[in-house]
Amino acid sequence: MTARTEKRGFAARPGDADSWIKAADAPPARSNSASAAFTARLTIDITPELRGRIKVAAFRRGVTASDILRDLLEREFPDRQGDTP
Q: Which stretches within the chain are classed as H helix?
């Protein structure tokens, strides 16, 4: 019988509980800004056509749709000193 390889498929569970628990301790892939320490999910309603256009634009730029939207929101709503929520 051949030994199992460490390579796991998409969304596959690890073979043992220890590696599953330790995998959660891996640092996040996106930590290039100070605001990456805290993130919150934002849900908006858009048409499927707009969603498609955003995804195509993101693919062409080699980034994620989330990156495009974060940049857009940062540009439209810059952090200003002295502003209170």
A: 17-23, 48-61, 65-76
The DSSP 8-state label assigned to residue 65 in this structure reads: H
Q: What is the pLDDT along the chain (85 residues), one digit of tens a residue?
A: 566 666 655 666 667 767 766 665 655 555 555 555 677 888 999 999 999 999 999 999 999 999 999 999 999 999 887 665 5
- Match 């940049």 to its residue by tokens: 71
Task: Report if pTM > 0.85.
Answer: no
Which residues lie closer than 8 Å to 57 by C-beta, 6 or more apart? 68
